[in-house]
Structure formats: C-alpha cells, structure tokens
Write a structure and sequence with these properties.
single chain; alpha+beta; 11 helices; 26% helix; globular
Amino acid sequence: MRIAFERFDKDWILPVEGTLGNKAQNLFANREAIAAAGFRRPEAVVVPWEYLKAAPDPSSFVLSVIDTWLSGWQRVYVRSNAPDEDTDRRIPGLYSTEHIWNEDRAYAETLVERVLDSYGTVVARRSRKMRGVQESEMGLLLERAVSDANVDYAGSYTEFGDSSKVLFAWPEYMHLTMTRSPMKSYSVTDGRIQADHTPEEGEIARRLDDLVTRLVHIEGKGWEIEFLVHKGEMYAAQVTPVIMHPQLIMPNGVQSVFEVGQVVGTGDYSLDGVLWTSPFPGEGHIQALEKFDSEHANYAVITEKLAINSTNRAGGQLFMSLLNARAFLITNIWRGSSSLASHVEQYLRNTGVALEIRESLDLPLEPAYSPTKLRVVADESSGKGVVILDGSWQPYEKLALQP
C-alpha cells in the first residue's frame, strides 16, 4: 500500500489509499451541503488504520503527519475514526478523542497513544463481538482547533423524531462537548426553540435546522451535528446519522409506579428484571456487572445520573459495562446540569430509553438484581413516559463479586 496524502481542498487532506472511516466519510460526503448552509469545517487530515498499522511508531507517525499537513499548528484534536464507528447501534464515546498542544510534544504522543489504545479495551472488543463487527484497527481524524483559546458557542443538534434538541455546552470544551453535560438544553420544532432563549441561540438553532435539511437523506434516520461558533463563523465538527423513531402513543388507563420527569428515547419495552447499581462501584463490582450483562439481555437499570453521564473515564466504565440494558431509570438527575451529555443521550436512543425518576428509592448499597417484571414506555417527542409493574415487586439479591 502506498502511504501518502494529498490535499483535496482547503479543509481536507486525504490518504491516497486506505479506509476513510465513517466519521470522516459522513463529513466528506456532506461537504457541499455544509458549505451551502454557510458552515465551515475545521481543517482535517484523515489517517486510515492501514497507515497506522504499517507505521513502526504510530504516535510519532501521527505527529509527523500533523507537522507536515497542519503546519504552524498549536492545538489539534485527535479523533477516533475506527471502521465500526457511527454504524447501526453505534456506541458514542466508546473510543477516545483527545486534544494535543504543539508545546508539549512528549505528552502529545501519550495522548495519541491513548486514542489508538481505546480500540483494544475489553468493553470495545466485547461491543464489536456483540454487534458482529470484524476486528480491525483504529483510524484517526485529525482536526485543527478553530481557536487556540475558547469559542463563542459549542454544542450539538439532534433529530430524534417529530422534534429536535439543541444543547449548548461550556465553550471551553470546544470539540469535546459531546461527552460533557450541557449548560442549556432546548426542544426545537421547525427551527424554532420552544422556550425562552437569547437571539443568538435562536439564530444558531435556525441555521442548524436548515443544515439538517440539506444533508444526505438516509431512510429511517436523522442527523446529529456537533457545532462550534467562533468569531461569527459556524463550524460543523461532526455530522452523524442517528435513528429516528415515529411518535409513540402512550397506553391509556395505566398508572406509572414512579413519577417520571425527563425522557430520552422512544420505545415500548417489556423487561424481565431490574438491576440496581450505585454510581461508583468497586472493581470487583464492575466485573460482576459485566458478567451479569453477558448473561441477561432484557433488563432495566436503576441508578443515579452520575453513573452514566460520562462516556469516558470512571463513569464511562460503568456505563459501558451494561451493553444489554434496555431501559435506564435515573435518579438524582438534577445534580449538576439537568441534561445528560449528548453522547450519552444518543447511546440511550440507540439501545433503548431513559426515564428520570422523581422520587427517593430505598435500594441496596451494592449492585443487586430483582426479577421484577416491568413495562417501560417512553416517547421523547412528547416528553412522556410510564413505568408499569407487571405483577409484584420481587426482592433484590446482591450480585456475587468476581474473584
């Protein structure tokens, strides 16, 4: 294979051979629509997994590519771009993204290694096996930061049914906003925010709504956009196809066993049991949860918001251990931001639903399972959800710790 790059235009440096990866391909295929909507793209280099596999020192190779093609760089975002990313039942946040600085090249190499190594984690391998994905290697999407300081606005815009949602994150997170709880969350209908907002926020939502109408149509799917605004310019950092669900009619004449608040996802699930876990279980408990998940395919999880509101580090370790859960019943959702991180919300939409439980629950201190049967129904477009008890509550039994 010939290992070389060529500049396609002012925004794209592409490999002459190798796999583009879905993350890069989605952006590249929509480049004309992005430009037509008045958005810009961060300058980017696509590094296929084949080039990285052939490199004697992949991290050093990546820095040499950045030096050559993003000359004068100060800050670059190293995004995972694995062949299985952004496919059906995608798991946002399964792989890493890091930002590196030219002034600290030794640490930059360490961060590049961290992104590359995220492909081989136990959870990543298990996820690919569950989805029937062939093993490969990590590719990368290298993006020049649109600012070496903060931007004016950052966040995401997601279609999920008859409505959309725009999240405004803390601007200092820039290209990492998808994994952080947002400052503000708004429902959007026909390009208009359905709540009090600033004129700037309204204009951003309008332009994002215009952009999604221009992106390539995929039957049964909508789009999620990661955006940045800097010095009056709007940037599309990611465009990702996401599952769209038609509005669900809620069942009549039923009473929810919990008071339900916020809802993420749309679906009607009959579940065989309920798993409880605290936000920060020990290592032995993590292994017990992973074993439980491998043996159960249709269950609900009751936990606190802190347990799932991250797609990396400690929170992500727990979140990614429960790949077969179909419903998350979340307590203490008002701790910190009232909304979940964008990547977390999208994962929940792909795999099931999440409902906020607005009451205190008397639960075990350690991970435990109850074979209580539940029916969980949620419709994100209307913001409605119910948890229906099928029979009676059964006692919890603690999960056995793994040696």
